[in-house]
Amino acid sequence: MNVFYEEDGNFRVASIMSEAESSMQVESISGKRSKIKAANVLLRFEAPLSGFLETAQAEADKLELDFLWECCGEAEFNFEDFAQEYYGKKPTHLEAAAIAVRLHSAPVYFNRKGKGRYKAAPADILKAALAGLEKKRLLAEKMAGYVEQLKALTMPEEIMQKRDMLLYEPDKNAFEYKVLDTAAAALHLSHLKLLHACGAIPSVHDYHLGAFLREYFAKGEAFTDEQISALSAGISFDLPMAEAEAFSIDDSTTTEIDDAFSIRQLDDGLICVGIHIAAPALGIDIDSPLDLAAMHRLSTVYMPGHKITMLPESAIRPFSLDEGQIKPVLSMYLHVNPDLTIVQRHSKVELIKVAENLRHDALEPYFNETTLAADSGHPYWSKLLFLFNLAESLEKARGKYDPTKPPQVDYNFYVNDGKVSIVGRHRGSPMDKLVAELMIEANSQWGALLASHQVPGLYRAQMGGKVYMTTKAEPHQGLGVAQYSWSTSPLRRAVDLINQRQIISVVQNQPPVYPQNSDALTTHMRNFELTYKAYSEFQIRMERYWCLQYLIQEDIQEVHATVWRENLVRLDNLPFMTKVYGLPELKVGTRVSLQVQEVDTLMMELRTKFLQVLENEAVVTEIPAEDEGTEVEAA
Question: Residue 458 in contact with residue 521, Cβ under 8 Å?
Answer without folding.
Answer: yes
